[in-house]
Structure to design on (417 residues):
């Protein structure tokens, strides 16, 4: 059992909850893994890790259904049930000596936030680190309070774009792939971490392939209808893959043929 | 090579022009600069030039009734601004405004059309290159029309 210790508003329907353990702590989740968060009296939903600090868990949630709306309505002191961590996360360590490009859109920015925080703390090898983030409108860009720190971090290139903006917006407007087209990228030595709506990820992956990034080096985080989170119920099955245990992070070589099957 | 010719030679859009074509195109071009918020193109006005951005950023806007102007696309260094000059009636579809101090190379569109009529190989190459730009913007517009981020959870 955990308890909400802080609630940060991200957008009209989206908050970031920080949770501290009330009794037992779960094993430390890795970036890209998810937990099942239980809103008491309502139900349970899979939510990606958006950050962690020792035993504290950070999750960003958009209220789109009964469970997530109940979680979004949490206040400091609200108890939350937590199961997890589940799934296969991002393999950042294997990519540390390579160029890294992170592309995320919408709520897909949340699962890549731990990667960005990790890169901020990493003074590692002199490799190119690029972070490209998209949102529908400027007021829906996640982690706006942190973006300036990300942008000014040495060695990190951070660009954002939105689908449409009111006059007066000074940032980029366009698809996140348009940002990708503008960055210098050496495909043969790049590992990409991609998260967002599936169609967005498909266009990003196509773009990365065109730029010479190997399909095995394009890691995407899939969202499917996860219920049990332990590979038993089959709700999240995608062909031979059980997303809650084989994923949610899978490489493009594995996932591309499956996404091409209508109705899968 | 002039400064404009050197710049245009490095622009992807014009990468495979012959030196003669590039020199002729450069002769139809001039440098322009825009202050933040200065209008670069205006909807319905004659599409008499197109721009290649040297630096800065430009927003493409549309006036939405009751919502004011909305920015639907931004272009930056190395990008081309303006495709309406390719097709009759040669009038801008949207308004464009500089977001920051911006330098462009503005190319005389009517003269380029004449050049393309006279030199079909050049015209074909140029229209092929602009087809890539139009395709990219069509994909961008179609994907954004799906409103992908609205449904993600």
């Amino acid at each position: 059992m955990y308890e909400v210790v802080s609630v940060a508003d991200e957008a009209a329907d989206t908050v970031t909850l920080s949770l501290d353990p009330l009794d037992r702590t779960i094993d430390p989740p890795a970036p890209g893994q998810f937990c099942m968060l239980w809103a008491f009296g309502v139900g349970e939903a899979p939510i990606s890790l958006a950050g962690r600090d020792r035993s504290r868990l950070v999750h960003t949630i958009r209220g789109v259904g009964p469970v997530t709306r109940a979680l979004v309505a949490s206040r400091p002191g609200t108890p939350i049930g937590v199961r997890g961590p589940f799934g296969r996360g991002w393999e950042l360590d294997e990519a540390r000596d390579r160029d890294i490009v992170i592309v995320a859109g919408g709520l897909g920015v949340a699962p890549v936030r731990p990667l960005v925080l990790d890169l901020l703390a990493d003074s590692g090898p002199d490799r190119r680190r690029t972070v490209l983030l998209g949102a529908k409108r400027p007021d829906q860009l996640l982690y706006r309070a942190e973006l300036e720190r990300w942008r000014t971090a040495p060695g990190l290139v951070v660009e954002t774009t939105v689908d449409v903006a009111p006059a007066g917006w000074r940032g980029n407007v366009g698809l996140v792939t348009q940002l990708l087209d503008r960055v210098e990228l050496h495909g043969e030595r790049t590992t990409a971490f991609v998260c967002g709506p599936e169609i967005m990820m498909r266009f990003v992956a196509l773009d990365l392939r065109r730029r010479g990034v190997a399909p095995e080096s394009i890691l995407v985080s899939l969202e499917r209808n996860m219920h049990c989170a332990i590979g038993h119920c089959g709700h999240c099955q995608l062909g031979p893959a059980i997303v809650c245990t084989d994923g949610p992070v899978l490489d493009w070589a594995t996932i591309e043929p499956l996404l091409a099957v209508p109705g899968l | 090579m002039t400064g404009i010719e050197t710049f245009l030679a490095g622009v992807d859009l014009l990468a495979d022009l012959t030196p003669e074509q590039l020199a002729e195109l450069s002769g139809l071009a001039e440098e322009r600069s825009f202050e933040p918020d200065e209008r670069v193109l205006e909807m319905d006005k004659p599409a008499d030039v197109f721009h290649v951005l040297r630096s800065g950023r430009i927003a493409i806007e549309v006036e939405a009734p009751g919502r004011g102007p909305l920015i639907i696309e931004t272009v930056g260094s190395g990008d081309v601004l303006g495709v309406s000059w390719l097709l009759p009636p040669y009038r801008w579809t949207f308004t464009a405004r500089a977001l920051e101090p911006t330098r462009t190379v503005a190319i005389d569109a009517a003269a380029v059309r004449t050049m393309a009529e006279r030199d079909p190989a050049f015209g074909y190459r140029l229209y092929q290159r602009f087809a890539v730009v139009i395709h990219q913007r069509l994909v961008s517009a179609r994907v954004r029309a799906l409103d992908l981020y609205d449904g993600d959870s």
Notes: The domain at 2-86 of chain A is CATH 2.40.30.10 (Elongation Factor Tu (Ef-tu); domain 3). Chain A touches chain B through 35 residues (CB under 8 Å). The first strand of chain A starts at residue 2 and ends at 11. Residues 159 and 182 of chain A are 10 Å apart (CA to CA).
